[in-house]
From TrEMBL:
ATP binds at residue 256. Residues 178-190 have a biased composition (Polar residues). Residues 224-498 form the Protein kinase domain. Coiled coil: none annotated. It comes from Platanthera guangdongensis. Residues 178-198 are annotated as: Disordered. Keywords: ATP-binding, Kinase, Nucleotide-binding, Serine/threonine-protein kinase, Signal, Transferase. CDD domains: STKc_IRAK. InterPro entries: Kinase-like_dom_sf, Prot_kinase_dom, Protein_kinase_ATP_BS, Ser-Thr/Tyr_kinase_cat_dom, Ser/Thr_kinase_AS. Transmembrane segments: none annotated. It holds the Pfam family PK_Tyr_Ser-Thr. It comes from the Eukaryota. PANTHER family: OS01G0750732 PROTEIN, PROTEIN KINASE DOMAIN-CONTAINING PROTEIN. This is Calmodulin-binding receptor-like cytoplasmic kinase 3.
């Protein structure tokens, strides 16, 4: 990705790369061959201590250069053994690029935490110069740049088939499915301590509030009538069911032919669903098993999937406000799963076709077939498990290391946010090469100041572009290649709330 040295410039080594740069009293220019990866490269080299810190002296302080459509200001703080990179304001994107992390008191516990955690925020990246932070070489960069293509090559992403079902990816599946690990990696810092605050554990012998016999299920679905079929997923077929009291439910029937392999997923879904209760999560109502039938009964959500609505299949185009509300609902649902359920729950398959919409276009996250309980011990940073999820939404770090944390959901959410804004699927193979990987295409447009290009052309309204830019910026933050650089889901929700306020203000000032 990085080529150099430049004519008349300098260069240094970073793993296998030679990093070229030019510097003058007032400029600092990296030379890379790919605009998209340039910022990632910069962050990567800094994170790995590959910048030539030794030659970094006072004279290097406060030098800047417009770069990637942004203005980076480098400041060496040799006393603190650290370097900061500040993104300066650019016209038109002032708010977006405002520093969001206050480093004024680096001696505070939070300051120390930042110093040691290698935190990147929108406005400032503050990195210790210690090389102990070294992250496995170019893999990180590859994840940022190549990984979307990597996924696309393996599976036609238009099909959006779950990886677990994708034979091409079976090689990626770790033999150790459930081995919890307490191994720490230098980049893993957010420990998840589950709070029992909203524990809603059912009786062990009674899952859900609705106990139906198989015969009642057959009656409710008119013997699994095709006319009541709502859809089909990897684990089974979903039917609309009408109970004797007239209430409507969704009934998911496991496919018999895959029953043996699906048993785990089904029971995982049932166990996890039974423990959660949130308005933006599809509620488990009951579970029935008899012989080779496994039936999950959930709340019926009547208005189709988010993906269908983005495609305009229901004859209705979601307006910007509805899209923002949907993003907020999903963020809240995931925050609940990560923080407030009895155990930390990682959904692992956040995508537009797993977001169901109510009649008033509020979102409910569904499909817990891949969901896993997250780390349970305080010093446990991740669990090691098979890679499961859907091509295009998969966290590259999880794909590479098999280490699962709630940040994998954050990555998928970032991809989903771009999907919500653009209407495009994460990978669209029928488009020209530059536009196939939606996150990359969006990032290019964003950096080129062409925010409006990213907006779904089906949206027939004038949306304040600063609001769109903020949402995009948040999406890219979520989809950072390494989990340490992603926000927590709770923070994502908080930022979306702020964006909603801005959006409201922008409407009032029109
Ligand atoms: N609770 C529900 N209410 C209404 N419709 C539902 C409900 N659950 C699922 N559906 C419909 O059934 C379809 C299949 O759902 P399911 O969760 O089994 O699979 P999927 O998420 O589409 O695919 P996969 O499981 O392979 O990722 C959904 O796309 C949706 O249209």
């Amino acid at each position: 990705v990085v080529v150099g040295p430049l004519a008349g410039g300098l260069s240094w080594s970073c793993d296998d790369d030679r990093v070229g740069y030019l510097r003058s009293p007032d400029s600092f220019l990296f030379f890379v061959d790919d605009r998209v990866s340039a910022c990632e490269a910069l962050v990567f080299y800094m994170a790995n201590g590959c910048l030539d810190f030794e030659s970094l002296s006072e004279e290097w302080g406060n030098i800047g250069r417009e770069y990637c459509g942004r203005q980076f200001k480098f400041s060496a703080d040799l006393d603190r053994d650290a370097i900061s990179v500040e993104v300066l304001h650019m016209s038109g994107r002032k708010l977006l690029l405002q520093p969001q992390v206050d480093f004024s008191n680096m001696d505070s516990p939070r300051g120390k935490q930042l110093l040691h955690e290698e935190v990147k925020d929108h406005g400032i990246i503050f990195l210790p110069k210690s090389k102990s932070l070294a992250i496995p070489g170019m893999l990180l960069l590859c994840c940022a740049v190549i990984c979307p293509c990597f996924r696309a090559k393996r599976k036609d992403p238009i099909v959006q088939t779950s990886l677990d079902k994708d034979l091409n990816l079976s090689k990626l599946v770790s033999p150790s499915d459930v081995s919890a690990s307490t191994n720490k990696t230098p980049t893993t810092t957010h420990k998840v301590v589950p709070s029992p605050r909203f524990s809603l554990s059912p009786q062990p012998n009674k899952i859900g509030s609705l106990q139906l016999t198989i015969n009642q299920v057959i009656k409710a679905t008119q013997n699994f009538s095709p006319s009541l079929k709502l859809g089909e997923g990897g684990f089974g077929t979903v039917y609309k069911g009408v109970l004797h009291d007239g209430s409507v439910v969704a009934i998911k029937r496991a496919k018999k032919e895959h029953f043996a392999t699906l048993r785990d997923e089904f029971s995982s879904e049932v166990e996890l669903l039974a423990k959660i209760e949130h308005r933006s999560l599809v509620k488990l109502l009951g579970y029935t098993e008899k012989g080779k039938e496994r039936i999950v009964i959930t709340e019926y959500v009547p208005n189709g999937t988010l993906r269908e609505h983005l495609d305009g299949l229901n004859g209705h185009i979601l307006d910007f406000n509805q899209r923002l509300e949907i993003a907020i609902d999903v963020a809240h649902a995931l925050t609940y799963l990560h923080l407030y359920a009895e155990k930390t729950i990682i959904h692992r398959d956040v995508k537009a076709s797993n977001i169901l919409l109510t009649e008033s276009f509020r979102a409910k996250v569904s499909d817990f077939g891949f969901a896993r309980a997250g780390p349970t011990e305080v010093d446990q940073t991740h669990i090691s498990t098979k890679v499961k999820g859907t091509a295009g939404y998969l966290d590259p770090e999880y794909l590479r290391t098999y280490q699962l944390t709630p940040k994998s959901d954050v990555f998928s959410f970032g991809i989903l946010l771009i999907e919500i804004l653009s209407g495009r699927r994460p990978v669209e193979m029928k488009r020209c090469f530059e536009e196939r990987i939606t996150v990359r295409w969006a990032f290019n447009n964003f950096n080129g100041g062409r925010v409006s290009e990213v907006l779904d052309p089906k949206l027939h309204e004038d949306v304040n572009l600063e609001v769109v830019a903020k949402m995009l910026s948040l999406a890219f933050h979520c989809a950072a290649p390494t989990r340490a650089n992603r926000p927590l889901m709770k923070e994502v929700g908080e930022q979306l709330w702020e964006i909603r306020k801005d959006f409201g203000r922008s409407l009032r000032s029109e």
